[in-house]
Amino acid sequence: MPKRVHGALSLTLAICGGAGVVAAPPAENSYVASLRRLTEQEYRNSIADVFGKEIEVRGSFEPTKRTGGLAAASTGLLSVTPVGFESFSKMANDIAGQVIAEKYRAKLPCAPRNPKAPDDVCAREILSHYGMLLFRRPLTATELDNRVGLSRRMTERTNDFYAGMQYGLSMLLQLPDFIFRTEVAIPSADGESGTLDSYSRATRLSFLMWNTTPDAELLKAAGNGELNTSAGLARQVDRLMASPRLEVGMSAFFDDMLQLDTFDTVSKDSLLYPKWGSAMATSAREETLRTVIGLTLHDNGDIRDLMTTRQTYFDRRLAMLYRVAFPFKGDWVKYEFPADSGRSGILTQISMLSMFSHPGRSSPTKRGVALQEIFLCSPTPEPPNDVDFSEVNNTDGPVKTLRERLMAHTTNKVCAACHQHTDPIGLSLEAFDTIGGYHTTENGAPIDVSATIQGRTFSGAQGLGQYMHDNPRYPACVARRLYSYSRGLKYSTVDDFEDAYKAFQDSGFRLRALLKSMAVSNSFYDVGPPGKPPLNDSTEIAKQ
Amino acid sequence: MKFNRRSLLRGSCQGALAVMGLPFLDCFLNNKGQAQTNGRPLPTRFNTFFWGCGLTASLWIPKKAGTDWDMTVQLKPLEPFRKKMNVFSGLRVPLDSKPNGQHWSGLAAANTGIAPFRGGEFESRTIDQQVAEVIGKGVRFRSVAASSSGDPRQSYSSLGGTNLLPSEPTPLSLYTRLFGPGFQDPTKGDWKPDPRILLQKSVLSAVAEDRKRVMQNLGASDRGRMDQYFTSVRQTEQQMEAELQRPNIEAKVSIPEPPSGDLVANNASPNLRVITPLMARLGAMALATDQTRVFNLSVSSPQNAMFVPGDPLGFHQSTHEEPVDPKLGYQPRVHEYNVASMELFAAFLKELDAIQEGDGTLLDHSLVMAFTDQAYARIHSVDGLPILVAGGAGGRMKTGYHIAGDNSPVSRVGLTLQKALGVSVDTWGKESLQVRSPYTELLA
């Protein structure tokens, strides 16, 4: 028999004259546990799923800000500035205008008796249908009356039913209920914690798995209480995970975790590296995502192998940078580097190597700082203010290679503490230049790619890959980031999802095992008590 | 027929109610905005220019103070404007108990008068927003920010906290925001407001009415965020109100055609030299046509990533890694980047000074604060932060001076600017940065 997760449904449903689902007002003691601003991709995916892929989203989005290693963590902190809202407002009018345009209006759930006059029954049907999809919950009767009223007034002013609908829909798109993912919680009996209501569960699940708004079936499962039973929840999790759309959701996660948006601001020196063009960034980003999704989802592989695999995916541009022959035809091909290529997993893909480098030179420090943070969840403090790097930079002097120049840091105690943390990682990658090309000498001297971290000595990228593969902090870091990402947290530990982490370990570090175990567990939907969301406090950062 | 904003707000037209639909809109359209030309004085504008990593003290600070200051090698690109600007040297940035956040504390102090606790965050609204609240009302955009190196995050305009007002990252996006949908060209005879704006504005009023519902059951920080949300809604409503009125302009300008495609905006200096004047020109056009009165242009992040092709280090990395030349006494490559930064500032001023309006140029009717994050980037020191202020604020700011090394807190410049712009403020800044005496010698 399915176990009841919690008794009360937060929203009591009522079916109202065939006009769709209408909700009673939220339960009296419910509270908003978090408000997360939609990211650009979440917004775009939602519009495509609610209104159809043919509807174009034209406009700009306010940037997010990386916090605790994830842009997702900032969505629970940022608001909407006047500049951002101006853009949301324009987009809303534009999207709603397309939805009611003659070309597409046949898709609306009903047609008015007279297109030049108000028709409240049809307006109600349209607004409750799209309202539920956009707000990820049914509208309350008051909300619905209000939107229908606005549409009627606008129809009266324009003598056009569809213009009235345009502004009614536009209003839905401009409300925070759409622009923010609102997580509503019910407090526990003792008031010490809370748990998400069923629609908020559906929302958290859907954005995690598919990076979009919940589909009709998931909303139905929220509405009929299925998501509040263990069996029902597991059924929906299985359904979401069986869909190819899981790739979309996990690509969004890895794009955030691997900081691939860094490419938006990367420029390379066109004199020193004429092969680089801005299209390279797009290809390199995709190469990495294809590799990650291929290994974790298609092959159900061990996530640690991302550090060592020699398998990758190329397009024609990347093949040129990697100096590998590309077939006469085709867009993307699977490729396996030979064992002596010096390459090791995503560590040596063009994305990672080029994002964390200078425009015209590799940077062991930047690479070391980035890889420590991304793969080991270990951020590096800022250098002291008055540090003088100039002695290490004179390439005309006796110090030829970057390694020798960097080694100067270790003679200075202040520098040594952090540089011993970052530089060995970076130095082992020194055979790769700022755009990911492979070379064995620098300024005429052979490049030494040996490194020692925490007593372990290795050589080159393949040595680094094996070190990362064997480091238990790496899979733990991926799991923590996934958990933080799903909940919009700045910080988490594996203790926060102990059982799921154990399932991850037991499976041999399969992403699907982690994801499923996390999503079907009741505690995944637990939140802090009213007024105190869990672990989203900046003091937690200090523990990192 | 006379039209004013109040009658529009009431939704009435010749006494008839707005609910009558299209005829109402028609009577609005027939009015070609004549009600606007009422001979008001030209507005004063405020602009900022940000570049990262500062200048080199031995090469930019004039030896002589006053109006007779000696031109220096790093200020040389600004020679054409020396009579229209003031140079401030020797400004202190006391941080009290706050950390010296690298590449942030200095710019935040100059920009807010408050030393920040954390990098990337401002403790209050930035000066452009404080000024915009006073001079920017009633025009389409309260403020506009642009980044000529292509990064929307590269903005030093903020309502406080973590929310930055994003920059337009390319000439095309800046053009579209300013002169794309919603823009009616006030230089053309056939100016008329877009009737759809009234409808869109009604939607915003309806959104604003949901505020009370949304505010229910929120924790304190989310309340603050939703407060900001509805303030933004209100400001967009005000923008639409402004779009219904023909701006009163005197400049003889014509709005350029939209760019056919976008240009590459990044940190390569050849691109910056193309993009910066282009964005400055678009900003100047927006100011001249009274679409906005506050325009913020940045050419880099604080860790200035500008690079000359062939230089593997670029500006920021050079400040830390290039040795001080023992013979010259400074970092020669850094010097080149310093001068390049001033050339970009000069390009901005040139565009403002090229537009004639009334008895002078747009620059004469503006103030432009150029500021940066470091006084000596090599060691991240902030005392001695350079600030340059151009423009005469419509005659309220005296220009041509070098205000030398009197050890004033950097916030004294911000206070003086606000006084010149007619902002009613007696003190500005906090803790050791709090100041009450402006540079009265500069105020006309």
Strand content of chain A: 5-15%
Strand content of chain B: 5-15%
Biggest sheet strand order of chain B reads: 5-6-3-9-10-4-11
* CATH architecture classification of chain B: 3-Layer(aba) Sandwich
> Biggest interface, and residues per chain?
A-B, 71 and 74 residues
Short key terms for the protein model shown above:
heterodimer, A: 544 residues, alpha+beta, 4-stranded antiparallel β-sheet, 20 helices, 44% helix, globular, disordered N terminus, B: 444 residues, alpha/beta, Alkaline Phosphatase, subunit A, 7-stranded mixed β-sheet, two-stranded antiparallel sheet, 11 strands, 33% helix
What does this structure look like?
The complex is a heterodimer of chains A (544) and B (444). Chain A has 544 residues and is of the alpha+beta class. Chain A has two domains: 13-243, no CATH class; 270-287 and 301-470, no CATH class. Chain A is 44% helix and 8% strand. Chain A has a four-stranded antiparallel beta sheet with strand order 3-4-5-12. In chain A, strand 1 and strand 2 (21-23) form a beta hairpin. The radius of gyration of chain A is 26 Å and the shape is globular. With 444 residues, chain B is of the alpha/beta class. A seven-stranded mixed beta sheet of chain B has the order 5-6-3-9-10-4-11, sandwiched between helices. In chain B, strands 1-2 form a two-stranded antiparallel ribbon. A two-stranded antiparallel sheet of chain B has the order 7-8. In chain B, strand 7 (356-357) and strand 8 form a beta hairpin. Chain B is globular. The two termini of chain B are 41 Å apart. Chains A and B meet through strand 3, helix 2, helix 4 and helix 5 of A and helix 7, helix 9 and helix 11 of B.
